[in-house]
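Chapter review: from sequence to fold.
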Amino acid sequence: MEWLQKLTQQIKGLWNKWKTVQKIIFLSILGVVIIGIVLLVAVSAAPTRAEVFSRSITDPADLDRIVQRLDQEGFSYSVTSDNRIVVDDDATARRARSILVREDLVPPETDPWEIFDVERWTQTDFERNINLHRALTRELELHIEALADVDNASVTIAFPEDRLFLDEQNPITASVILTAKPGSDIRENRAKVEGIEKLIQFAIEGLTPENITISDLTGLVLDDFEGLTELDRIELTRRELELKAEEERRLRAEVLEGIAGMLTADRVRIPRLEVEIDMSQKEIQTREVFPITVGSDNPLTPYDDSQLELYVPLSVQSIEEEFRGTGFNPEGPPGQEGQTPPAYKDLQDTVGEWSNTSRTQNNEINTRETQETVSPTLMRRTIGLAIDGIWRNEYDEDGQLVINVDGSISRAYTPPSEELLGSIKVIVEHAIGYDARRGDSVTVQHVQFDRTREQFEEDAAARRQQQIQQIVLFSLIGVAAVLVVFIAFRLISREIERRRRLREEELARQHQAMREAALRSAEDEGTEVEMSVEERARLEMQENAVNMAREHPEDVAQLIRTWLVEE
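The token string follows.
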């Protein structure tokens, strides 16, 4: 704190030494600097005109009624080309909205929650979301309880966290427990349950019917209509379409993820992605015969050495018959002639041969019989990609943006190369599982996107930045000019003061020399000269100064330096 006190004392001392003109000049410069900073902040941060409603009014009748009411209240406003009402500032917009809400003149397409958007410094976004969800839930409960068949309603809404990609966003879900009034037929009346389901769906943005569950106090789900025949057909069709849409979303996400490292998201458009799905139910019966594995494959060998057999013998029946010669013809008792006729007796020594072989083998084979119901089946896939080029801003030799005559930024467009398009096509084919036999089609074309709006906003931002730089530059030049004038005035003032002081000192020396000459002449003549008290004191001071300068020249030199620094 000592240095602060010293600095304060030095500033006070310097301020007291300044003259009135110097103080006025310093205060003027300080005022100019403050005014320049205020103007700079006011110009750069000046709010634009505020809109009464954030959306355009599509109905001309509603627009005429709102305009007539604003004219009656004396508001200063303007209507844009897209039927938006614009006033001077946010305060006027809030006052106009409050009057229109009171008169029930809010357009039906306007979001009612936007009317109550009040920014508070002491409230966080999390608290705002919690308050909004609580207000939505309570308002929906009151809305359902206003029905004649409902005595009480308990509503629970699950709002998931926002995700970066829409495909990863979890849906909003709602569960409702109803307490029916005595004598109400709401449990059996499907139309009433459907009406409550639609009330819940339209009360919450993004909520779909399949994510709504309505039950009574016994746990019976009232909005389960799948048991009805007609609704089954509708539900089946809806699910088929959802399955088709889910498959298309999956393929879209895979395609975008595959080319994410090659292109930015704003350079890729998928105008068409369609997956054909065969929703018909089919029953397929298959009987498959395959070989029997006798020996398994050895994983240590680099080749397949498994032993396969087409069949395995189950039973074998073999019959073999063989005969040679004429056989044995018996004779009579020994010593007597046999009874063999002479014709056969002549053939007794003839040699003959007979052979008969029969083999029957029953084999066992491997069979597999399958019966399956197939539905649905993914069929042909068609996808078309549009790839945009790159816009690059042009810079001059000094590294500054090149600005056209109309104030826009000069840009150069570079289309994608054929190699890049070919690589993207290969990646897309692998991402969707391309199969030419299935009739899949993948098309990747270069299309230059319309960037008019983006370039217009970028040009406007560049112009604002250039204006701010010019304001800062002119302000600095003005401050520098004022400082130069102040320094020049200070130097001139010092020079005038120095010359005046030298002139006074010269006149004082001349007067002193004349007095001393008069005194010496008087002393020489012996005339007594009376000196005033001031002259004697000045003479003694001069003698003391001369003596001190002779005795202590260093101290006198330091004293003179101090005087010069203070001046």
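Two observations follow directly from the output. The CA atoms of residues 329 and 344 lie 9 Å apart. The chain is about 45% helix and 20% strand.
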